[in-house]
Amino acid sequence: MSILPQAMQAAFGSIASHLLPGSCLLCSADTSGSPLCSDCESDLPKLPANLCPQCGIETTLGEHCGACLKEPPAFTRTIAQFRYDFPVDRLIQALKYSHQLPLAAWFGHCLSRKIVAAEHDLILPLPLHPSRLQTRGFNQSTEIARTISRASGIPMNTHSLTRSRATPPQAALPLKERAQNVRGAFECSADFSGKRILLVDDVMTTGSTLRECARILKLHGATQITVVVAARALRH
C-alpha cells in the first residue's frame, strides 16, 4: 500500500470549497480546470492486481472469492477505478455532500477508459429514493454515468430502474444487516431481455446494494450485468 505524502493529508482538511476554479482539491495547485493536479492524481490509492473478477474484492491469485462461489451475485464483473481509502473517500464525500460536481465528470472519464463500448448495450445508474434525491439535489451515480455515456456512446437509462423504498444509509448499519436493509428496495419497469447492462455507482463496500439491484435487473431479462464504481472498499 502506497503511503500518501503527509503534506497532501495536511492540505486536505475540509475539502477545498474555498479554492478558485482550476485549483486542485487536494493541494490547491493550478490544474487548468481539472479537479486534481497530476501529482495528486498519481498518488491516489490504487487497487491491487489480484481481485475477484466478479465482485472486485482482493484474493490471493485473482481467483473468485469464497462469497461469490458460495452465493454468486447477479452481476458477472466489477470494474473499479480506485481503492476506497484516503483521500478518495474524501473526494467521494465532497462530491455527494459538498456538491463538487466536477468530480463526477472526472471519475466518469477515468472509468470510461476501462470500458469497451461494444461489450455493453445500456448504462443504468444506481437510483436514489426520491426523498433523498430531493434533499441532495442530484444523484452522484447518475452524474458519473452521464460522463461514461457521453465518452463511450453507450445510451443511459435513468427512468426504468427506481428505488421504491427509502432505507437507512448502508454506512450506518452493521455489515450483517445491510443485505436485508435493501431487500425489495428497487423496482424495474422495463423489459431488459438480452441487454448487457453497466450498473454504475460511486462506491462499492459490501456490495449488498448492488447485488440487490442486479438481482432485480436479472429478473427483468438482463443477460449480463457489469458493476462500475469509482471506488472499491477492500478488507483491511
What spatial form do the alpha-carbon principal axes imply? globular
Number of domains: 2
What class do helices, strands and sheet pairing give? alpha/beta
Can you list the strand order of the major beta sheet?
Answer: 1-6-5-2
Mean pLDDT, nearest integer? 88
CATH class of the largest domain: Alpha Beta
Taking all Cα atoms into account, the compactness measure Rg is 18 Å
What sequence of helices (H) and strands (E) makes up the elements? HHHEHHEHHEHEEHE
Low-pLDDT runs: 1-19
Describe the structure.
This protein has 236 residues and is α/β, with parallel strands linked by helices. The protein has two domains: 1-43, no CATH class; 46-232, Rossmann fold. Helices cover 33% and strands 15% of the residues. The chain is built from nine helices and six strands. The strands form two sheets. Strands 1-6-5-2 form a four-stranded parallel sheet. Strands 3-4 form a two-stranded antiparallel ribbon. The longest helix has 13 residues, at 140-152. The chain starts with 5 loop residues before the first helix and ends with a strand.
